[in-house]
Amino acid sequence: MKNIILFTIDTLRKDALGCYGSLEDTPFIDSIQDKCIRFTNLQAIGPYTQASFPGILTSSYYLEYGKQKMLSMKRTLISEVLNKAGITTAAFHSNPYLSGYFGWNRGWDIFYDSMEEDVTDEVPYVKGDVINQNVDNWLSTYIKDKEYNRYFLWAHYMDVHEPYVPEKKYVDMIDPSITLSQAEMFALFKDPLLKRDVSDKGKVELLKKLYRAHVREVDGYVEEFFEILKKHDLLQNTVVIMTADHGDEFGEHGGLSHDGKMYSELINVPFLIYDYTRDKGEKCDTLMSNIDIPPTIVHLFGLDPVDNFRGISALPYAGYPEKGCFGEAIGKKSAHEKETDKPVYYYQEKNLKIIYSEAGDKWELYDLGSDPEELDNIIDTSLEAKGMKEKLQGAIAGIK
Amino acid sequence: MIDKMREEELKEKIKKSKEIFEQAFDRFKPEDTRLIWSGGKDSSLTTWICKDFCKENNIKIPKAFTIDEGDAFEEIDEILHRLSKEWNIELDWGRNDDVLKAAGHKLNADVNVKDLNERNRAEIKRIGFDLERFPFEAESYVGNHLMKTVVFNSYIEENNVKAVFQGLRWDEQPARKNDPYFEDVPAGELQPAHTRVRPILHFTERDIWDTTLHFNIPYCPLYKQGYRSLGAKTTSIKTTDIPAWEQDLENTEERAGRRQDKEKTMERLRKLGYM
What we know:
By secondary structure, chain A is α/β, with parallel strands linked by helices. Chain A has ten helices and 15 strands.
């Protein structure tokens, strides 16, 4: 039986990875595709950390226990399930929304959230190399004993998240003609990014390049992480699940960063399952949700399904049923959620996606097959509109 | 109940703390020092040991200082009043009246920066904020700075305090594990030079409870209701109804839900652009 590593990268767009798109910013991740199942149609249940991570770690939807800042005690964390089953659990990350303060430290034998570390305004988290160092230190002591217990390790990188202030060497890998100082990059974070101002196309393009530089940086940390596994002789007995909590917007739907919207650049995330013993890469196009990740982990550990988990195992993917997926968030229009902001929901089935924003009672329907960029709202013309509305309303009612 | 061996172990730890007090009083006159006393279990034990040490050595017991952040548990206020009287310790209360007044003494009220005095305005600038108003709430970074740090700095300046005794412990959180018993803090902008003395650094959370219960040291009743760690009222959370000392102290977080964690977490969120 193998150990499992859940590797999540904050704010990583699917199309930022070479293996999913046309960019070449992730040479390492692309190079391990022969050992991966590459899922092309995994939808996050929400477009920002608080709205998405309940899916990844608790297989539950964001608003189903009410709008709470703290993780509800009614949710079951994957760490609690595994810990109870005698599996050692360890977490290493730097996202304040997933910190011990908000209650995400339940069920972990080791929980490092970095909140005690000093950070700067330009890099307000510990970088991937620090996460790696912590993982390496832990593994070094943990597996010293040949008879060690099976483990589940979750590592999360923040490096792609704004502010986009990458080091020069990474900027050079994307576009050496960019000569901005760190202060100038940071100024772009304050304006236009925090102002969500997309009027200057040149600045939006520049932000996207700086974002890509961080992706390039992260690819290096992922490589370093795999080197650590290799060093400890763990590659062949570990399955690595890789995903992102959400993507990032660069003006596709009139905004920047990741606010309360349900379009693909924010919710269609990368999902890879790496297994060293695999002899060739595979691709799965089945529509799935990130609430399926905890059940997948439970399945890989050979444990019984968990009642409190809403998803189903993504593996074996050939047996995965054809079904719709759902998500919900608060339709905030800036980084700061206001009390008056109202929920936004989506439901996708095959290529059809319906979005309902309570603010303004607004419905949108997109055919992702013919309109992958979600620019042509067919809610008033599609014959499927009525049926899709009912399905979304049914999904909302189903979790209340 | 603890056995003889454990009792000896605790007595050794108390002895070690008294040595720290001894060194401190070699360096500072008692009247130039203050016990920082929040009413929580750690600072109460520190105060209790100090009281014992002073009595044994015929030293005048220092004054104590507590900060009212405007959001305190009644139970904490009550135990501070009761114990300071019982132990015959003079207790000074510090609060930022200027901010409290600007907030109308109401939590979550908006405070207009222009309504504040010069000192408070300068402090807001100093910690890097350029804002017109902020909410007076427990989780607000600015509010917390004004209600705690500023009150502390003004107090030690006005009273010419040279050293303060803090009830911090090494096992409280990883960031504390290298804290020294004596730390000389140099003068900074708006902060006078002073020395921080931490006599109970070597006590674990388990030691605190074993000592408190074994020697019948009074404690705030909230701990019996399940609180592990007490901060401001609206930001302290209890995760169980089991008395603190009966909880799995070694394997669970002491400070889950405490203000300090909140402060740090909120500061991170702010830097990521979320606040």
